[in-house]
Amino acid sequence: MSFRLPVSAEDWCAVPKLPPFDYSQCKDKVSINKLPLYGGLTNSLKIMLLGAVLSFEEDRCFVVDESTSALPKRESPEDSFNTSFYNRYFSPVGLPSHTLASTNLTVQTRGWEETWGNWSHNRRIKSQLNTIDSLGLKSIDGHSLKRYVMKRLWRPLPWLRKSACAKLENQLGRHAQRRGRTSEDEFIAFSVRRGDKASENFTFASLDQYIIAAEKAAVTHFHGGRNETDIYSNPKKMPTIFVATDDCTVMGDFRSRRPHWNFVSECDDNTNHQSNNGFRINDMKRWDSEATDAHFRKFMVELIAMASAKYFIGVLYTNVTWWVLFMRSQDPSTFKILTTPGTKNREGIDYW
C-alpha cells in the first residue's frame, strides 16, 4: 500500500466540503466594514477572521484592506503586486477592494482593537456562545464558530493546496519507507519561531523543551514506550517529527541531540526560500515574486503539516500557533504549548 497522509489532513487537502460565503448578501445598507491586514500573514488572517465574524453578526458587508499592510510592500516597482497580495494565494474574501472608493456607505474600520482586543465579545473565546443569524448559527461556542467560519472563508487556491499536500505527502512518504512503513503515518509537528520575535523581547523555547515534550507525547499518545527512558533507549519507537520553522539552523541542532530520530522539514529542500536567521517581516520589501512565492509555498506545507499532525508542540509568542489551533480538529490534549519566560501568566487557549 502506498503512503498517504493521515485522515486529519483531509480538512485542508481535499476539495472543501463547505461552500464559500456570498459576501454580497448584507442587510445593513448604511455601513460597511473595512478589515485591515496587519503584521505577518497569520496575524493578518486572525484579525480578518475575527473581523469577518463580527461583520456577519452585524449582517454588514466588508472589504479586506491591504493598503497599510507590509505583506505586499516592495522596494522595487517590478516586484510589486499588480492586484492583491492575498488573492495571489487565497480565494478573495469580502467585497472587492475598489468598493471602498465608490461606496456611499459609512466605512467603519474593524482592526485589532475591536476584534482581538475586545476579549469579552469580539475575540469569541471558547466559553462564549454566539448567535449569528445571517449564517443560521445558534448558540455556538467561540472556538467552533471560528473553525466553521475559517473553513468557509480561508480557502487556499487549488494550485497552492494541491502542491502543498503533494509535497507533504512525498516528504513524509520518503521517510516512512525508510522506516518500513508503507501506509498512513501519524506524526508530531514542532513549530519553532524565531526571527523578528527576538525584537519583541520574547525568550525562545529551548530545543530541549521540544524534545522532552515529544518524548512525553510518544508515551501518552503514540504508545511508543513505557516511559521517556524507554523512548530514549529505543528511538525506533519515536514517531516521525515534522519541524516547521523559520530558522533552518535548528535542524542540525535537533539532529545532533537525537541522531536516531526521524526529523522531516521543508528546510531539507534546497529549492525553498530559506532563512538561517528566521523570518523578519521587514525583509519582505526586498523579495521578488519568486522569493515570495517560494516562502508561502513552504509556509503552506508547514501549516498543513501542523494542522494534520496527531500531536502539535509550539509556543505562545507567534500567531502561527493561534491559526493552527483553529485549523486542527483533533483532541485538545494533542495541542501542547511550551512555557517560556514572559508568557507564563498570559491567557491560555480557552481565551483565544
Describe this structure as you would to a colleague.
- With 352 residues, the chain is an alpha/beta fold.
- Helix content is 35%, strand content 13%.
- It has 11 helices and 10 strands.
- It has a 5-stranded parallel β-sheet with strand order 8-7-6-9-10, with helices on both faces. A 3-stranded parallel β-sheet has the order 2-1-3, covered by helices on one side.
- Helix 9 links the parallel strand 7 and strand 8.
- Helix 2 crosses helix 5, helix 2 packs across helix 11 and helix 6 packs across helix 10.
- The longest helix is centred in the middle third of the chain and has 21 residues.
Describe the secondary structure blueprint for this structure.
Blueprint: H1 10-13, E1 31-36, H2 41-58, E2 62-65, H3 86-89, H4 99-102, E3 106-109, E4 129-132, E5 137-141, H5 142-153, H6 158-178, E6 187-192, H7 207-221, H8 228-233, E7 240-245, H9 249-257, E8 263-265, H10 289-308, E9 311-315, H11 319-327, E10 335-338
Parallel strand pairs: 1-2, 1-3, 6-7, 6-9, 7-8, 9-10
Antiparallel strand pairs: 4-5
Helix pairs in contact: 2-5, 2-11, 6-10, 10-11
